[in-house]
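@channel anyone free to eyeball this complex?
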Amino acid sequence: MAIKERKEREKQEMRNLIIESATQLFLKQGYDKTSIRSIADDIEYSPATIYLYFKDKDEIFYVIHENAFDILDKHLRQHDGIADPFERLGAIGRTYIKFGLENPDYYDLMFIMRAPMEQIKNEEKWKAGECAFGYLLTTLSECLEQKKIRPAELHVTAIMVWSFVHGLVSLYVRERMCILMMEDDATREVLYSSLDLFMANLKT
Amino acid sequence: MAIKERKEREKQEMRNLIIESATQLFLKQGYDKTSIRSIADDIEYSPATIYLYFKDKDEIFYVIHENAFDILDKHLRQHDGIADPFERLGAIGRTYIKFGLENPDYYDLMFIMRAPMEQIKNEEKWKAGECAFGYLLTTLSECLEQKKIRPAELHVTAIMVWSFVHGLVSLYVRERMCILMMEDDATREVLYSSLDLFMANLKT
DNA sequence: GAATATAATAAACACTGTTTAGTAAATGCA
DNA sequence: TGCATTTACTAAACAGTGTTTATTATATTC
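replying in thread with the prediction:
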């Protein structure tokens, strides 16, 4: 019965085709403008076909969402080698911000958008997200252990750090940094200087 | 020619009627579900009539957006009496967070949503927003003058502070704090503890 | 080869924001 | 007062959206 396996493979290939097209369109023109019909056009199938492979639009973007978390995770883990946890924390922070500025659409989908949240709240609660957040927790608990930062409850510290970098990126991504009335390059410099100041304040 | 004045008044009344209805619907069911047709239904006029008073949906929500900034501004200014700028800063922070948690839809419209941003970028650049941000700048420059906080460039410091509180509120409002896997009350407590920790780190 | 299961789609449904063409009432002027 | 003009309003349409249903053509099973 190799036919069933082939069918399964073909089904997965079709799902991949849809995800690839959706990702490409999404990164090119954003979530709202990526309609089911535009994906269907792109892969040269009818819109209804897409619903044979995905429950709804959210399910498609939940897969992209998961992929984005994998990419961020790879970026952050590249600092695993840094022995000093405080230095590692700084590197993670810079990389997080860099990821957000360079992949605003991914960042939006992961941490700002409301759309595919129904999926996220179910499933293995934040699977991918827990991973990156877990990495922050481990790094911070090392910092606390070695008294590199002010003693405080681990989760409170983690939320403080995450909120700060998320605030930086999300205000930038959603164009609220225009209040600075600076050129884009100057604005980005303020962001990174702001991270340096934050880290200086954090240090014991 | 009192007729012209009456007509002008009636026009303004109609605009107010639309805004009131839109605000009420928006706060009850959010931006996306507040359609032009639902507003029209509510005020018992045809959808096309609304377009005689507002250019498009964005223009309606830009007015609500402005009103929301007025409300936030009033909340923040209530701490004008606090003489010590560092204490005042803490009070402003708490009030900012409280406003966000208690008015998530207003907060969303003001600092997260993409929708009525076209309007904001034009007009008297951030008029209302500059006001609240300006208040933060004054308070922080007093803190710097009196050496209550670590010396640093004013705008860098302001962005650090704003990003942090915005991060807190926006992660909460867009339901990313569920990563803590805590009850809502406990999560809110973490937020406020996180503010306390941030302020402690900020202090010289 | 006939019966069944699978894959794909055209067309429709119920929405959305917005525009256009046409109607009825209020106003300005003689 | 009577007529022309401006104003206020709307029904209907347009071009989209996500999603569902009924139907057709193909592939698989027996």
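from a first look: Chain A has a mean pLDDT of 92.
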